[in-house]
Here is the input.
Amino acid sequence: MARVPSYRLVTGVGCPSKGIVRGPLAVCIIRGEASIMARIPTGIMTLDPGLTDISDEQLACMAEGHDWPKLRLNQVAPKGFRAVRNNDGSFLWVYTCNLCTTTRSRDTLRYGIYDHQAAYSYTYPKWWIHFKADDDMTRARLKRELSKRLHDAIEKSA
Here is the structure.
C-alpha cells in the first residue's frame, strides 16, 4: 500500500514559492518544497453581508448560546451571578453572560425557592444589534459565519 503524503493548508496572500497570490481566497497547499495553487470557490469563505455589523461576542452568543454562570451546590456563587433580596422575602436572580455581558433575571418565590412559572427578562448591551423575525436568522447561518471568522484560529491550532 502506497504512503499518502501529508498536506498542509496555508491561508493568506503569500505563497512560499509562487509569490503573492491575487484574487479572493487563494491558498497554497504545500508538500515538501513544491507548492500547488488552489482556489477556493467564491462564496465558501466570504463573510455573510447581512452579519458583518455584528460583533464577534454577539455572533458567538447567537450561534452557540450565551455563557451563563452555573450555580453549584456547596460552592460560592460564580462570577456573573448575583441575588438581590426583595422586601417580600423573595430574590431576584441576575445572571450576566461571560461573553457579551447580556443580563437575564428572574424572581424566585419566598426564601429563594425556584419558581418554574416565572419568566426570564433580558437586558442587552447598547451595542447589541436586534434583528426582525423575518430576517432569516437561523442557527446554521450564524454558525457558518462564526466558523468563517474563526478560520485563522482554527488553522493555527491544527
